[in-house]
Write a structure and sequence with these properties.
alpha/beta; Rossmann fold; 6-stranded parallel sheet; binds uridine-5'-diphosphate-glucuronic acid
């Protein structure tokens, strides 16, 4: 017994996750992509992205007959009650979201959509796009909804099936369409927010831009902690206990990156400009992010005696965060670029990067292990919070290093372990002298 019949257009991170999760919820899903090799691989049960749980759901979906992969959007929609658009919306030259792919899919499907179906936009798109899609379709018998995704890479399947909230926006008063989209998530336990499409689209941008701003803020507090000999671990703990603030998304780092936050922050600044407004706060968050990357370079330069030319640096972590193999807009690579521009020789290790990626990792020689990256290095820089870095044999690393400095941009390592190994540890906003963390003491009586 199947639920609804759903076409998912695009089998990237968002599309594939959406397709396999909806199939796991009992829907009949046809997922389309323009890449024949990808479609073939998925049809054989091979996951094309690295995401915990996704491979199992691809295999289960195919075996149950509820999941199918086809080439091209047109091949997916013949029986669709819902068409979910998950095509890329990359950044165009002026920073605004490029809707070319979305528009071409909508035009391709216009005359093929069955009457009564709902076109659902899941891609991150500028406010007003659902209305624009409705105009492009020009079909009174088809509804358009916005249902933004809030999936973090590395936990996309979990986030889809356990969302904090489900947001559904529709144009006009089409409450029936909104309730039908909500029905797709019937088995998921989460608050469902029904709103208009512009608000739904704004919720997605506001969430990502708020998270980016929060990180720029916390990275700046970490910087100040260094000047003032305060300890960011204690500060974020103390601040996060305020229930109005909370603990999540308060970890300092080498700047925020990835395929979403950088693109969405710039796009919202452009959106503000396009309506004759301005978003100085968000512009400052973007600028601060670049400054925090530079701050890492300053620290490395200082640690090796003031000049990076000819100096060898071992980089631990190249992806934009741990738990993914994604190098897009990785702050680690931005830092590498800046170090290389000053003449540093870079040897980098990342558990998910096994070979050079042309045009992406060109500035870094890829090492086979963290120990290899340390060979003869004047300093080590930790850029991604892979758990295995904590478990490294640090005395063994110390024995291979030429210099002593370890710069931990994520505050991921235990300073005492490194200091015991004879290394000179520098965290990000951690007080120079080691001390115990903030304790919450029960008050007697
Ligand atoms: C982000 C959002 O978190 C998702 O909700 C959203 O759906 C997604 O973008 C999207 O628009 O598709 P993601 O790009 O996977 O997800 O990455 P995050 O986990 O948000 O991390 C973004 C950056 O912030 C990374 O560079 C990460 O290392 C950094 N970060 C995150 C920190 O430096 N500190 C933190 O405490 C958290």
């Amino acid at each position: 017994m199947f639920g609804s019949t759903v076409a998912v257009i695009g089998a990237g991170y968002v599309g594939l996750t959406t397709a396999v999760c909806l199939a796991s919820l009992g829907h009949r899903v046809v997922c389309a992509d323009v890449d024949q090799e990808k479609v073939n691989a998925l049809g054989r049960g091979e996951a094309t992205i690295r995401e915990p749980g996704i491979c199992e759901l691809v295999v289960d979906g195919l075996a149950s007959g509820r999941l199918e992969f086809v080439l091209g959007a047109s091949a997916a929609v013949a029986e669709a009650e819902f068409v979910i658009l998950c095509v890329p919306t990359p950044m165009s030259a002026d920073g605004a979201a490029d809707l070319t792919m979305l528009e071409s899919v909508v035009t391709e499907l216009r005359d093929l959509l069955p009457p009564g179906c709902v076109v659902v936009n899941k891609s991150t798109v500028p406010v007003g796009t659902a209305t624009h899609v409705g105009e492009l379709l020009d079909r009174a018998d088809v509804s358009v909804a916005s249902n933004p995704e809030f999936l973090r890479e590395g936990s996309a399947v979990y986030d889809f099936l356990n969302p904090d909230r489900i947001v559904i926006g529709v144009a006009g008063e089409d409450r029936t369409a909104a309730e039908r989209v909500a029905g797709l998530y019937g088995k998921v336990d989460a608050p469902v927010l029904l709103t208009d499409s512009a608000s739904a689209e704004m919720i997605k941008y506001a969430a990502n831009c708020y998270l980016a701003t929060r990180l720029s803020f916390v990275n700046t507090i970490a910087e100040l902690c260094e000047y003032l000999d305060a300890n960011i671990d204690d500060v974020t703990s103390g601040v996060g206990h305020d229930v109005r603030i909370g603990h999540a998304f308060l970890r300092p780092g080498p700047g925020w990156g990835g395929s979403c936050l950088p693109k969405d922050t710039i796009a919202l600044v452009r959106t503000a400009e396009s309506v004759g407004s301005d978003f100085p706060l968000l512009r400052a968050a973007i600028e601060a992010n670049l400054r925090h990357q530079e701050r890492v370079v300053d620290k490395v330069r200082k640690a090796v005696g003031g000049d990076l030319a000819g100096v060898r640096i071992g980089l631990l972590g190249l992806t934009f965060k741990a738990g993914t193999d994604d190098l897009r807009d990785s702050p680690a690579l931005a830092v590498a670029e800046r170090l290389a521009a000053e003449g540093a020789e870079l040897l980098g290790y990342d558990p998910s990067v096994h070979a050079p990626v042309p045009g992406v990792t060109d500035r870094v020689r890829i090492a086979g292990s963290a120990y290899h990256a340390a060979n003869g290095a004047d300093a080590i820089v930790v850029l991604t919070e892979w758990p295995e870095f904590r478990a490294l044999d640090w005395p063994r690393i110390a024995a291979r290093l030429g210099g002593r400095a370890v710069i931990d941009t994520r505050n991921h390592l235990d300073p005492l372990v490194l200091r015991r190994a004879g290394l000179s540890y520098q965290g990000n906003g951690r007080a120079a002298a080691p001390r115990e963390g903030l304790e919450l003491l029960p008050i007697a009586g």
